[in-house]
C-alpha cells in the first residue's frame, strides 16, 4: 500500500520544480497552486513493495529536471487528481476528480457530464496562463479556468422587439448574478473597459514597432475594432452577445506578433485594470480570457500566414444584386465609423438631449449599443443586446430625430454612394420608434401635422428631392444629388409653410474618428470610481458609526449642535457680564465662531476635520474668564444637549467630556495677571492669498452663512428634506460651504465633502445663485476686487455645488489664465482686478500685472475685522491639549469607559488616526465597516451579508442603483480574503501602538488601539487567527490593567450587529430619497442646455375666459376657455421648453401681474415653474391686454443676454377687446419695436369679435416673424392654434 501522504509529497516536489521555472508568476497564482489537497483514498498498487521509495525518487528527479510525474497507476480505479475548474463566464467553481494522466479532452468530457460546459465551445487555461491542448496530460492538482471559445452558436437569437421583455433585456444588459459579465458591469462596463484598452493598445510604441500591426491599424478603423473586441469580451465573460468577426488565428497570425509584443499587450491590460480598480479575482478571470487566445495571436517559430481579407470586405451576394444594405454599406467597419461620428456629434450639440451619466451611459457604451442597433436595422448579423430595456436606447426625444438625421447626412459621407446614404437615412427614420427614440415622447400626429406631412410629401414629389418630416421637429432634406434648382424649389416651398433653417450639427471627419481620442486618467477615474470612493465620502460626511462623530450624525449633526450651543452661549447673561467676552459676542463674527466650534468638535469626536484656529490659551486667557463663568458655560451646554431629543444620555455625557477638559486653557486663575490682548481683531492672515486678502475664515464664514440663508429662502437649492434621507441640515451646509471657500482661497481647511452629491449645496438655478452670491459678497466686502475674486472661486467650485455635476479635467481658458498668473506670483485679488480691467483677456491681464499695474483699492479695505478668540494670524503658537489621554480622563484601568476625544497637536494621536482608518474598498457601503461576510448582491455591489439581507427584507432600494434588490446573494471570496488579511495585519500594528502609547502615558489612546485590535481578532475566523496574534492581544490587555478578552467566546458579528439597524435604516432612507428625486427630476444628471429660447407667456385672466368652449374628443366634460388655455400652456412647457430656456409668465385682467419672473428652466425647477404657471391661470377681472404686452417686452429685456439671432418670443392669448389699458395699440407696437430684445409676437385670439381682429393684425406687423393666429372656432381651433405656436418656436 502507498500512503497518500507519499503521493502528495511527490506531487509537491514536482510542483515546486514547475514553480521554480515559471517566469514572473503572480503571488495569487503561487498561492493557488501551492495549496494541494493531501487527503487521498488508499488504492492498491500493482508493483514491488519498495514502490514508496520509487515514488519519492521520481519526485526528487522531477524536482531537479522539471519532468512531468509519470503515470504509474493503471485502471479506472487508479489514483485520482483533484482539479478546481473555474468557469469564467458563469462565475462558478467546479471541483472534479480525474485519473492522473488524463488528457484535457477527457477532463472536458467530465466537465460536460457535470453539466458545466460543452467541449466544442470551451477551452481550458492552466495555472501558468497557457491554453491547454486537447492532448495535454493532467498530472497534479491544479486550478484551471474554463473559457468559452470565440465562436458563436447558431441559430442566433432574434433581433425582433416583439420577442423581448423589459426584465429579460435588463438581465441581458447587466448580466446574470455572479457571472464575470455582471461583475464587470454588463455590456456598459465591458464597453467602457474595452474603449480604454483599445485606445492604449493602438498607441503602444512596442505594438506599433511591428510594421504589419501599424499597417493594419491604418487600414482599418479603431471604431470597428472596439466594437468587435467589446462584442467578443461580452460573449466570453458570459453576456448574450455573439461574436461576428473573423477567427483569432485568421485575424492575427499574418501580423507576425512576437511574444514580446504580446507581453506589452498584456502589460497595457494590467494597467487598465488598475485604472478601473478591478478586484484581483476579476482581473484573474479576464486574464484567463485573454490568455486563452494567445496561441492564436502569437506567431512563435512559424511563418506568418497570408494576409486575410480586408476589414471592410464583406461576403454575401453583392455581385448578384441581392445583397443587404449592411453588405452594400461595406459591413461592420464603416457602420461603426458612422455611429462613432454620429454619437459624438449629437453629444456635443447643446440642442440634443441624450441622457448620459459618465458611468454606465457614457459615450463608449452608447456607441457600442447603437452600432448593434444600426447593424440590425440595415440587415447585419450582429445581435442587439437589448431592445425592450429603455436604458440601452439613445432615449432621444422623438422630435429630435430631426437633429439625428441631419447629423447622419454628414456622418455618412465616408460611404461613397449617395444612394446608399439616402437609403441609410430612410432606414433609420423608419426604425426610430422601435429602436432609437424615447417612446415616452411619442404621440399620434395631430390633424395639423398630418396636413403638413401631406404638403411636404407633395413638395418632395414635385421637386424630386426626398424629404423626411419629423412632426414638431423639422424637415430633413436628402439633397446629396439635388441640382441648384431643386434646392431652391425645396427651400421656397418649406419657407411658404413657415419653416426656417437652423445651424447644422458639427460632425468630425472620418479620419479624426478613425484616429480616436485617448481619454485622460482623470476621466477614467471619475467614470469608473471604485465603490470605496462612495464609502469614503459617506464615512467622511456621516461618520464611522462606532465613533461619537458618526453617532451624532456626522458633520450635519455636529454643525447643528454647534449652532445651538453658540446661540445659547452668546445669549448667556453670566458670560455677557464679562465685557471682553461681550465684545466678541456682539461682533459680526458669529458665523466664524460656529464654524470653528464645529471644526474642533468634529475632530475631537472622531471626524475627518482638522482644527485650524488659534490655540485655546492664546485665544482665551486674556479675556479673564472666571471659574463661575466657565460653570455657566458648561451648564448652558448641558441644557442645550438635554433639549436635543436625538441624543442619548451616553452621547450627552461624551460630548460634555470633550468640553470639560478645556477649563485649564480657558479659565484665568483668580488674582492671576492676564496676558496682553494679542490684537486678534486687527490681525489678518499673512500672505497674498485670497484667504488672507478676504480677511480669513470669519468674513468667508459670514459670506457662506448669508448666502445659504438667501438661497434657501429663494428656493435656489434642492429641498433639504428630500435629500440624504433627511439627514442634511442648514448649519451643516453653511459649514461645508465655508470649508470649501476657505480651501479654494488658499486656507488650511480640509474639505470634508469632495464630489459627494449627498452633501453638496444642491444649486438648481446657477445664474440666479451667482446673482445672489454677488449681492451677498457686496454686503461682506467693501473691496469689489476681493468680492470679485471670491465669486471667481465660487464659480470654479461649481461641480462641488451642483448635484450630478462632476469636475472636469480643466477649467477652460479662464481657469488656465488664472493659474498662469498665480504661478507668476500674483495674488487672487490682483488677478481678478486685472482680468476685469482686461475684460477677461488673460494675456492682456498678465501683461498689465507684469508692467506693475495695481488695482485701485477701497479705502476701507475688505471685510470689517470683528475680533475672534480663535482666529489665525500673528504666529501659530502651539499649546498642549487638555485631552492628554491619562487614566481618569475618559477611561480608567478597571473599566471600558469610552475616551473623551482626540488629542490636539499630538504626533501620537496622528499615528493612531491613521491606524484607525479602514480601507474603504474593503468596507460595506451600508455599515461603513470592514467586511465580515461580503456578498455580491443583485445590483452588482458588494455588501455585508447581514446588512443587505436586512435591507432587502425591509423593501429597501440599492444604495448604488436606487432600484429594488432581489434576495439572491453570492459570496465575494476575494474581498473576504483581503478583508481578513487587512484585519490581521492592522490588529498587530494596533497592539504594537498600544504598548508604545501606554509607555508614553497616553492611556486613552492605548485603550482605543487595544479595543479596535480586539474587534479585529474577534472578527477573524478561527482558522485565520494567528496564535501569536492572540497571545499579543492578551499580553497587551494585561499590560493595560484589563482582563484579557476570551477570544474564543467573543461574538465575531458583534461589531456589525451594534450598528446594523441604524445603518440599514439610514441607507434605506437615503436610497429612497435619491430615487424619489430621480423620478421627479429624471434629467437632472444629464443636463444639456439646448439652443436657448426666451419666451414670455402672456395670458388673459379676464372673467370672460370662464366661458365654456367645448369638450376635447373623447372627453365628457365641458371645458372653459381658461381650462383649454391652461392645458395648452402646460403642453408647451412640457414638450417644447427645454432645459436652459428662459421663461416668464404674465397674466392680465384689471391689472398686470408677473406670476413667474425671468427664470432659466432646469431639471430641478421645472416642476415648480409648471405649478406656478398652472396656478396663474385663474380668471379675476377685465382686460388690460396692451399694457400686458408692454410689461412683457420689459420683462423680456430682463432675460439673460443670449447670442444675436437666437429667438425671443412673446406668446399672448386674449379672448376680447382691451378695456383697461393705458396704452393704445399703436403705442404698444412702438414699444415692442423699440424694445432692445426685439421680440417676435404670437397673438392667439380666442373667439374674437370681427371688429377686434384688425387690432390684432396691427400687432402682428410688429416684426416679420410676428403672427396673429385666429382661433375663432371651438376647442379644436384653440388646440390647433397652440400646435402652430409650438411648431413656430420649435422648428
UniProtKB/TrEMBL annotation:
SUPFAM superfamilies named in the record: Globin-like (SSF46458), RING/U-box (SSF57850), vWA-like (SSF53300)
InterPro entries (UniProt xref): Globin-like_sf, Globin/Proto, Hemoglobin_trunc, Ubox_domain, VWF_A, vWFA_dom_sf, Znf_RING/FYVE/PHD
Entry-linked PROSITE patterns: VWFA
Region (Disordered): 871-902
Swiss-Prot/TrEMBL keywords: Coiled coil, Heme, Iron, Membrane, Metal-binding, Transmembrane, Transmembrane helix, Transport
CDD domains linked to this entry: TrHb1_N, vWFA
Coiled-coil ranges per UniProt: 1057-1084
Gene3D superfamilies assigned: Globins, von Willebrand factor, type A domain, Zinc/RING finger domain, C3HC4 (zinc finger)
Source species, domain of life: Eukaryota
SMART domains registered for this protein in UniProt: Ubox, VWA
Alphabetical list of Pfam families matching this protein: Bac_globin (PF01152), U-box (PF04564), VWA_2 (PF13519)
Annotated ranges, domain VWFA: 1094-1285
Transmembrane parts of this sequence: 50-67
Biological process (GO), any one: protein ubiquitination
Single GO MF descriptor: oxygen binding
Protein name, entry field: VWFA domain-containing protein
Species name: Emiliania huxleyi (strain CCMP1516)
Amino acid at each position: 500500500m502507498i500512503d497518500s501522504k507519499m503521493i502528495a509529497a511527490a506531487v509537491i516536489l514536482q510542483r515546486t520544480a514547475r514553480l521554480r521555472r515559471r517566469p514572473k508568476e503572480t503571488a495569487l497564482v503561487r498561492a493557488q497552486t501551492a495549496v494541494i489537497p493531501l487527503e487521498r483514498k488508499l488504492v492498491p498498487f500493482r508493483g514491488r513493495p519498495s514502490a514508496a521509495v520509487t515514488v519519492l525518487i521520481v519526485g526528487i528527479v522531477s524536482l531537479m529536471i522539471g519532468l512531468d510525474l509519470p503515470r504509474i497507476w493503471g485502471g479506472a480505479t487508479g489514483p485520482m487528481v483533484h482539479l478546481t475548474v473555474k468557469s469564467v463566464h458563469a462565475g462558478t467553481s467546479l471541483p472534479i476528480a480525474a485519473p492522473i494522466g488524463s488528457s484535457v479532452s477527457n477532463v472536458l468530457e467530465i466537465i460536460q457530464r457535470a453539466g458545466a460546459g460543452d467541449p466544442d465551445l470551451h477551452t481550458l487555461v492552466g495555472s501558468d496562463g497557457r491554453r491547454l491542448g486537447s492532448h495535454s496530460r493532467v498530472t497534479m492538482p491544479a486550478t484551471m479556468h474554463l473559457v468559452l471559445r470565440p465562436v458563436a452558436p447558431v441559430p442566433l437569437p432574434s433581433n425582433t422587439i416583439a420577442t423581448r421583455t423589459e426584465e429579460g433585456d435588463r438581465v441581458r444588459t447587466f448580466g446574470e448574478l455572479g457571472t464575470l459579465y455582471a461583475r464587470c458591469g454588463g455590456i456598459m462596463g465591458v464597453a467602457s473597459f474595452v474603449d480604454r484598452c483599445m485606445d492604449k493598445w493602438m498607441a503602444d510604441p512596442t505594438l506599433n514597432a511591428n510594421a504589419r500591426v501599424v499597417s493594419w491599424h491604418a487600414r482599418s478603423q479603431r471604431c470597428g475594432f472596439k466594437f468587435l473586441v467589446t462584442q467578443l469580451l461580452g460573449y466570453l465573460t458570459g453576456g448574450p452577445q455573439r461574436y461576428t468577426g473573423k477567427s483569432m488565428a485568421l485575424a492575427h497570425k499574418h501580423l507576425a506578433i512576437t511574444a514580446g509584443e504580446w507581453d506589452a499587450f498584456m502589460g497595457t491590460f494590467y494597467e487598465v485594470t488598475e485604472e478601473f480598480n478591478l478586484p484581483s479575482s476579476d482581473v484573474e478571470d479576464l486574464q484567463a480570457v485573454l490568455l486563452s487566445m494567445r496561441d492564436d495571436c502569437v506567431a512563435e517559430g512559424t511563418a506568418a500566414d497570408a494576409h486575410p481579407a480586408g476589414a471592410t470586405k464583406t461576403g454575401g451576394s453583392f455581385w448578384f444584386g441581392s445583397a443587404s444594405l449592411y453588405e452594400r454599406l461595406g459591413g461592420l467597419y464603416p457602420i461603426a465609423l458612422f455611429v462613432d461620428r454620429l454619437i459624438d456629434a449629437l453629444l456635443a450639440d447643446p440642442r440634443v438631449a441624450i441622457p448620459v451619466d459618465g458611468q454606465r451611459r457614457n459615450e463608449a457604451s452608447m456607441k457600442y449599443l447603437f452600432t448593434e442597433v444600426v447593424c440590425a436595422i440595415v440587415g447585419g448579423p450582429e445581435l442587439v443586446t437589448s431592445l425592450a430595456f429603455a436604458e440601452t436606447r439613445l432615449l432621444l426625444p422623438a422630435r429630435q430625430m430631426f437633429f439625428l438625421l441631419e447629423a447622419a447626412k454628414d456622418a455618412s459621407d465616408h460611404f461613397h454612394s449617395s444612394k446608399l446614404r439616402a437609403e441609410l437615412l430612410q432606414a433609420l427614420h423608419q426604425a426610430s420608434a422601435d429602436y432609437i427614440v424615447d417612446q415616452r415622447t411619442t404621440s399620434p400626429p395631430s390633424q395639423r401635422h398630418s396636413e403638413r406631412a401631406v404638403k411636404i410629401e407633395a413638395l418632395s414629389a414635385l421637386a424630386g428631392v426626398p424629404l423626411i418630416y419629423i412632426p414638431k421637429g423639422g424637415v430633413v432634406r436628402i439633397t446629396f444629388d439635388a441640382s441648384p434648382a431643386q434646392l431652391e424649389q425645396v427651400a421656397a416651398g418649406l419657407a411658404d409653410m413657415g419653416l426656417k433653417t437652423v445651424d447644422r450639427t458639427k460632425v468630425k471627419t472620418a479620419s479624426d474618428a478613425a484616429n480616436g481620442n485617448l481619454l485622460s486618467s482623470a476621466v477614467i477615474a471619475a467614470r469608473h470610481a471604485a465603490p470605496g470612493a462612495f464609502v469614503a465620502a459617506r464615512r467622511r460626511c456621516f461618520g464611522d458609526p462606532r465613533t461619537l462623530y458618526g453617532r451624532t450624525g456626522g458633520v450635519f449633526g455636529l454643525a447643528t449642535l454647534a449652532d445651538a450651543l453658540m446661540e445659547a452661549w452668546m445669549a448667556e447673561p453670566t458670560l455677557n457680564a464679562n465685557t471682553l467676552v461681550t465684545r466678541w459676542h456682539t461682533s459680526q463674527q458669529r458665523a466664524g465662531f460656529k464654524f470653528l466650534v464645529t471644526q474642533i468638535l468634529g475632530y475631537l469626536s472622531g471626524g475627518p476635520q482638522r482644527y485650524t484656529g488659534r490655540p485655546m490659551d492664546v485665544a482665551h486667557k486674556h479675556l479673564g474668564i472666571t471659574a463661575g463663568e466657565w460653570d455657566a458655560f458648561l451648564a448652558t451646554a448641558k441644557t442645550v444637549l438635554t433639549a436635543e431629543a436625538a441624543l442619548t444620555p451616553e452621547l450627552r455625557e461624551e460630548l460634555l467630556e470633550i468640553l470639560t477638559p478645556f477649563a485649564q486653557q480657558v479659565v484665568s486663575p483668580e488674582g492671576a495677571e492676564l496676558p496682553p490682548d494679542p490684537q486678534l481683531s486687527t490681525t489678518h492672515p499673512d500672505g497674498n492669498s485670497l484667504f488672507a486678502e478676504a480677511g480669513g475664515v470669519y468674513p468667508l464664514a459670514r459670506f457662506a452663512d448669508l448666502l445659504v440663508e438667501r438661497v434657501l429662502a429663494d428656493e435656489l437649492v434642492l429641498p433639504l428634506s428630500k435629500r440624504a434621507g433627511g439627514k442634511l441640515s442648514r448649519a451643516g451646509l453653511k459649514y461645508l460651504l465655508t470649508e470649501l471657500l476657505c480651501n479654494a482661497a488658499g486656507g488650511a481647511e480640509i474639505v470634508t465633502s469632495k464630489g459627494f452629491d449627498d452633501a453638496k449645496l444642491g444649486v438648481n438655478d446657477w445664474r440666479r445663485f451667482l446673482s445672489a452670491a454677488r449681492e451677498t459678497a457686496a454686503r461682506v466686502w467693501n473691496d469689489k476686487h476681493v468680492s470679485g475674486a471670491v465669486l471667481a472661486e465660487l464659480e470654479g467650485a461649481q461641480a462641488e455645488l451642483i448635484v450630478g455635476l462632476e469636475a472636469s479635467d480643466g477649467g477652460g481658458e479662464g481657469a488656465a489664465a488664472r493659474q498662469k498668473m498665480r504661478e507668476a506670483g500674483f495674488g487672487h485679488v490682483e488677478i481678478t482686478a486685472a482680468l476685469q480691467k482686461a475684460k477677461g483677456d488673460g494675456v492682456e491681464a498678465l501683461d498689465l500685472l507684469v508692467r506693475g499695474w495695481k488695482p485701485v483699492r477701497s479705502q476701507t479695505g475688505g471685510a470689517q475685522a470683528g475680533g475672534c478668540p480663535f482666529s489665525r494670524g500673528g504666529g501659530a503658537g502651539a499649546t498642549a491639549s487638555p485631552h492628554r489621554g491619562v487614566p481618569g480622563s475618559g477611561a480608567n484601568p478597571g473599566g471600558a469607559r469610552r475616551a473623551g476625544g482626540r488629542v490636539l497637536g499630538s504626533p501620537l494621536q496622528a499615528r493612531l488616526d491613521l491606524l484607525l482608518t479602514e480601507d474603504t474598498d474593503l468596507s460595506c457601503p451600508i455599515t461603513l465597516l470592514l467586511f465580515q461576510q461580503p456578498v455580491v448582491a443583485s445590483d452588482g455591489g458588494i455588501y455585508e451579508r447581514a446588512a443587505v439581507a436586512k435591507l432587502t427584507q425591509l423593501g429597501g432600494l440599492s444604495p448604488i442603483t436606487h432600484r429594488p434588490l432581489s434576495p439572491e446573494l453570492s459570496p465575494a471570496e476575494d474581498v473576504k480574503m483581503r478583508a481578513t488579511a487587512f484585519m490581521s495585519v492592522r490588529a498587530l500594528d494596533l497592539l504594537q501602538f498600544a504598548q508604545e502609547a501606554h509607555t508614553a502615558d497616553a492611556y486613552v489612546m492605548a485603550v482605543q488601539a487595544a479595543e479596535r485590535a480586539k474587534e479585529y481578532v474577534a472578527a477573524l475566523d478561527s482558522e485565520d487567527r494567528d496564535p501569536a496574534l492572540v497571545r499579543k492581544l492578551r499580553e497587551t490587555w494585561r499590560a493595560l490593567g484589563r482582563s484579557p478578552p476570551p477570544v474564543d467566546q467573543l461574538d465575531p458579528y458583534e461589531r456589525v450587529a451594534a450598528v446594523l439597524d441604524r445603518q440599514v435604516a439610514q441607507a434605506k432612507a437615503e436610497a429612497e430619497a435619491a430615487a424619489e428625486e430621480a423620478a421627479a427630476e429624471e434629467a437632472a444628471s444629464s443636463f444639456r442646455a439646448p439652443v436657448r429660447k426666451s419666451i414670455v407667456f402672456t395670458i388673459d385672466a379676464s372673467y370672460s375666459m370662464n366661458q365654456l368652449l367645448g369638450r376635447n374628443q373623447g372627453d365628457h366634460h365641458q371645458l372653459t376657455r381658461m381650462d383649454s388655455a391652461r392645458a395648452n400652456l402646460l403642453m408647451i412647457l412640457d414638450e417644447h421648453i427645454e432645459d436652459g430656456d428662459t421663461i416668464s409668465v404674465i397674466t392680465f385682467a384689471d391689472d398686470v401681474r408677473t406670476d413667474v419672473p425671468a427664470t432659466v428652466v432646469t431639471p430641478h425647477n421645472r416642476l415648480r415653474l409648471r405649478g406656478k404657471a398652472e396656478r396663474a391661470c385663474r380668471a379675476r377681472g377685465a382686460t388690460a391686454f396692451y399694457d400686458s404686452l408692454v410689461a412683457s417686452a420689459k420683462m423680456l429685456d430682463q432675460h439673460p443676454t443670449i447670442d444675436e439671432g437666437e429667438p425671443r418670443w412673446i406668446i399672448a392669448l386674449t379672448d376680447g377687446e382691451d378695456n383697461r389699458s393705458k396704452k393704445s395699440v399703436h403705442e404698444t407696437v412702438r414699444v415692442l419695436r423699440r424694445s432692445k430684445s426685439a421680440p417676435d409676437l404670437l397673438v392667439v385670439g380666442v373667439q374674437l369679435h370681427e371688429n377686434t381682429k384688425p387690432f390684432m393684425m396691427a400687432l402682428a406687423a410688429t416684426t416679420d416673424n410676428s403672427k396673429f393666429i385666429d382661433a375663432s372656432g371651438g376647442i379644436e381651433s384653440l388646440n390647433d392654434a397652440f400646435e402652430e405656436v409650438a411648431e413656430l418656436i420649435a422648428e
